[in-house]
Amino acid sequence: MNSAKSHHFLYTPIAAALAVFLAAFANTAIAAPDSDLWDRWLPHDPASAITVDHYEWSHMLEMYLRQGTDGVNRFDYGAVTPHDRATFLGYLDSLSQVPISQCRREEQLAFWINLYNALTVNTVLDHYPVESIRDIDISPGLFSKGPWKRKLFTVEGEAVSLDDIEHRILRPVWNDPRMHYVLNCAAVGCPQLNQEAFTADNAEALMNASARAYVNSPHGVSVDARGLTLSSIYRWYKEDFGDSDQALLAHIAQYADAPLAKVLADNPRIRGYHYDWRLNDLAIDVSWVPAKPVATLAAAPERFRSMHGAAGRTVKIDHSETQRVGTGRISD
Description:
By secondary structure, this protein is of the alpha+beta class. It has helices at about 5-30, 55-65, 80-95, 105-125, 160-175, 205-215, 235, 240, 245-255, 260-265, 300-305, and strands at about 65, 75, 150-155, 160, 220-225, 225-230, 270-275, 320-325, 330. A three-stranded mixed beta sheet has the order 5-6-7. The chain has a two-stranded antiparallel ribbon with strand order 1-2. Strand 8 and strand 9 (about 330) form a beta hairpin. Helix 3 packs antiparallel against helix 4 and helix 4 (about 105-125) runs antiparallel to helix 5 (about 160-175).
């Protein structure tokens, strides 16, 4: 047997195994966690009078969340003062003291939604500046990306991660597809960070408003002559919205305004999915103009200079998974 053939037979099994390994890695990288109930968080008390104070979270949102010119609610991470950060950390500490299992369901819902969103903002602040939350690689595991699997917080003595809150508590306990519209992952393509904290009293209204806002935004559903391009959320968590494309479109139709509802009535095809992973940072809203114009780039805060070239040229930061050629649409 000549050496060329020998090498062929030697390396072919290795190459095949490597191909399987890489395919598994690719699937792991894009797969969304299943809804998997952590029954530790099922207890609740319908008669409880406990009310959780989320005022400081509302203050942070009021102070630092602004709608960009693209319609995306963006957080001004670089502007948070040391005083406000300390107050915000105090709020998070107060949540760790809440006996949440003794609260009624409505109070629990607001608690977990606010905790998820506040922890996400806090995680970005801990590592700012970053261009995407996926750059915050603090999750355990060789193939993990982003912060979602890291145990970031303690509730009733239990360490919890962002994935725990979303996929082991909120999704399985409430079994409500609107949950996907109220959890913000600090990405431009994610459903908006709401401009007020959730409470037991306003959660239902905010969930409906959030669903309607996302469905009718180009980040949720966009339309062209060839059909619909949907947010990748509808692909990653399709089982939460229905077991078929028809069920998914029926869900979307519940929240569609008149122009989109008219398109959906014709039963259009789903031509693809997209997601924009760029950070929802006010400083990266390249079309946003500060309230007080900066006379020269040299005088601009560092967080603005870092997003522009030496002559003030806008730099577009693309953190999409792929770029569809010729359309300019960010997709996965």
